[in-house]
Amino acid sequence: MTDFPKPPFDRQRQLTPPARDADMDPRPDYGETRYKGSGRLEGRKAIITGGDSGIGRAVALAFAREGADVLVSYYDEHDDARETCRLVEEAGRKAVALAGDIKDAKHCRRIVDEAVSVFGRIDVLVNNAAHQKTFAAPEEISDEEWEVTFATNIHAMFYLVKAALPHMRAGGAIINTTSVNADMPSPQLLAYATTKGAIQNFTGGLAQLLAERDIRVNCVAPGPIWTPLIPSTMPMEMVREFGSQVPMKRPGQPCELAPVYVMLASPESSYVSGATIAVTGGKPII
Questions:
Q1: Which of 27, 58, 190, 213 could be bridged to 258 by S-S, CB 3.0 to 4.6 A?
Q2: Can you tell me whether residue 67 is helix, strand or coil?
Q3: DSSP 267
Q4: Where are the domains of the chain?
């Protein structure tokens, strides 16, 4: 619990999201030296959106070390995506990288088509990609910003689920990344927090719809996690003290979320559906 960096961090800001992993200090821990697999996802085929860095990269690495092949969906962070694929292939699994904008329903269908073409089926869909920005007042949020946040964070999940379901068999799993903001919305993240509440509701309803198909649907609610999203979307002073507000007094590292995604993807969690698993550094969600 204590073997991870704590704030205050060096002042840093990346002006243009999506940010790059290489420019962060300290670098996020994806589990390269920590995560040890045990075959829990042997032979499974997974799609992970936002898989180039952050939580997505940690999940891709863990899935691969557990025996899964992975399609890494990402926006345009080509260097980061190549590194994720290298980690997957280093674990002896197949990796496919596909760049593009998930706000576009056609691209979401292309992601699914590519996974089916390469893997033959889809066992696990991880809807993880997200967009956020901080604003001090509602008037600062443009109509375009509101629409981009919803299109990225919740509309894309619907497009991907609808496209993937015909290729998912009994025993499949869908895992959506929500946030503690679904239950405790940060006022500075109004648009983002609103979509995260929608994701939690979407997950609960979808789990009920798909139970008869033996496909489970769950979501993970991270607290403050040290990913490239943070220095590219928050003021420098917030970045400097990021994570200090939770009981553990530090942000979580991406590798600390990956085991939860593995559990939810694994047949071992056969009776877990419609759940929200919080990973918050000791801060309870309401």
A1: 58
A2: coil
A3: G
A4: 41-223+255-279
Q: What is the pLDDT of residues 124-141, one digit of tens each?
A: 999 999 999 999 999 999
Q: Phi-psi bin for 165: left (phi > 0), alpha (psi -120 to 50), beta?
A: alpha
Contact 50, 258 (CB under 8 A): no
In whole angstroms, what is the distance from residue 153 CA to residue 181 CA? 13
Instruction: List the catalytic residues.
Output: 192
**How many residues does this entry show for the chain?**
286
Between CA 88 and CA 221 the distance in angstroms is: 24
Residues with Cβ within 8 Å of residue 43, at least 6 apart in sequence:
67, 68
CA dist., res. 61 & res. 10, Å (int): 27
Per-residue pLDDT of 147-197, as tens digits, reads 999 999 999 999 999 999 999 999 999 999 999 999 999 999 999 999 999
Which superfamily is assigned to 41-223+255-279 in CATH?
Answer: NAD(P)-binding Rossmann-like Domain (3.40.50.720)
Angle of helix 54-65 relative to helix 78-90, nearest 10 degrees, comes to 20
